[in-house]
Write a structure and sequence with these properties.
Elements (H helix, E strand, L loop, with lengths): L1 H31 L5 H5 L3 H16 L1 H6 L5 H37 L4 H32 L2 H5 L1 H6 L1 H11 L1 H16 L7 E4 L2 E8 L3 E6 L4 E5 L2 H4 L3 E2 L7 E9 L5 H14 L3 E13 L4 E9 L2 H22 L13
Antiparallel strand pairs: 1-2, 1-5, 2-3, 3-4, 6-8, 7-8
Helix pairs in contact: 1-3, 3-5, 5-6, 6-10, 12-13
Length: 340
């Protein structure tokens, strides 16, 4: 009794020591190679690694049978085997996630001056990590199920009915599979990326998350719009930042016919020169339409991002209206009436 218990305690102690040693080695390597982000990320694998070690040592030493005087330790042996397989799957998922995240971090530092490429690779790596993790989980569960004798014995009947089951599952999961392949098409087709500004059903927002089944769009009032990924494959939508995050902002003003357009154009340029959100690329002010009572003036200006363009449009509209109110109040539209 004493020897099996000692073996069990030694197994736990060895597991803790191995986990601590691996963590210290990774910490030392990360300090010696700060340019490689993969080493500190691999430290997240300590818990699944310790579970793998303790399960492997328990299978090798088998102290449970001797502690409890079991004549048939099939159940305990099977439970430890399932723990080992699950821990191996968890460890593989953590390692893959760390490697992909390190690749993304290295790429971001390499092409920091090209946010469009960074967003595209970020989306692709995120989708790839989800796909690989899903495959690892499915394979791990399948291997764990194969350790049961009953699952192996019914294998022939399952193969015989695989055709019918496949047809039924395909019909039942048609929408899910469609979203799955649509997610892959979005990730590697470069139609929409994380961080893009899009307009979906008339609502503007920023793509916050892309999964294999849905896409999260953060609206201007911080609401989240959950959209199936198949929507972005089957229906048209606006992507304001697909090639260039810069945007042309426009301000429309309905003014009186007596408005001094040249002076208003000069006032627009003066305010743009002082505004930090104008990128200095383009600007203009034109009379685009007229009615019997007003003229339609359109002021355009460029900004670096859609958010900057929105704020710039708000500020310029307020400033132009304030300028006309203070210097040319008759330029603002009024309702003209005649006495009876």
């Amino acid at each position: 009794m004493l020897w099996p218990l000692t073996t069990l305690l030694a197994t736990v102690a060895a597991t803790l020591v191995i986990g601590w040693i691996v963590d210290q080695v990774l910490q030392r390597i990360a300090a010696d190679h700060p340019e490689a982000p993969v080493w500190p990320l691999l430290r997240r694998c300590r818990i699944p690694l310790q579970l793998v070690v303790v399960a492997a040592l328990l299978l090798a030493a088998n102290p449970v049978k001797r502690i409890f005087h079991l004549t048939n330790d099939v159940g305990a042996h099977h439970a430890v085997l399932l723990l080992l397989l699950a821990s191996l799957g968890w460890l593989t998922v953590r390692v893959v996630a760390a490697v992909l995240e390190a690749l993304l971090g290295r790429f971001e530092r390499t092409v920091a001056d090209d946010p469009a490429r960074v967003q595209r690779v970020h989306t692709q790596i995120s989708m790839l990590r989800r796909v690989v993790s899903a495959v690892i989980v499915v394979v791990t569960i399948a291997v764990m199920l194969l350790t049961f004798t009953a699952m192996r014995s019914v294998g022939a009947s399952l193969l015989a009915s695989a055709g019918i089951i496949g047809i039924v599952a395909g019909i039942a999961a048609q929408s899910t599979l469609g979203n799955f392949f649509a997610g892959l098409q979005i990730a590697f087709g470069d139609t929409v990326r994380i961080g893009d500004t899009v307009v979906v059903d008339g609502q503007q927002g920023t793509v916050e998350e892309i999964t294999l089944s849905y896409l999260v769009v953060r609206l201007w009032d911080y609401r989240r719009l959950i959209v199936p990924v198949s929507y972005f494959v089957n229906k048209p939508f606006e992507n304001w930042t697909r090639r260039d995050p810069g945007l042309l902002a426009a301000v429309l003003l309905h003014l009186d016919h007596s408005t001094p357009v040249d002076e208003l154009r000069a006032a627009l340029r003066a305010r743009l020169d002082q505004h930090p959100l104008w990128d200095g690329a383009e600007w203009a002010l034109h009379v685009t339409d007229t009615t019997p009572s007003t003229i339609l003036v359109r002021a355009t200006m460029t900004a670096r991002t859609p958010d900057d363009a929105t704020q710039l449009r708000f500020d310029i509209r307020e400033q132009l209206i304030a300028h006309l109110r203070d210097t040319h109040p008759t330029a603002l539209p009024r309702l003209h009436t005649t006495p009876e």
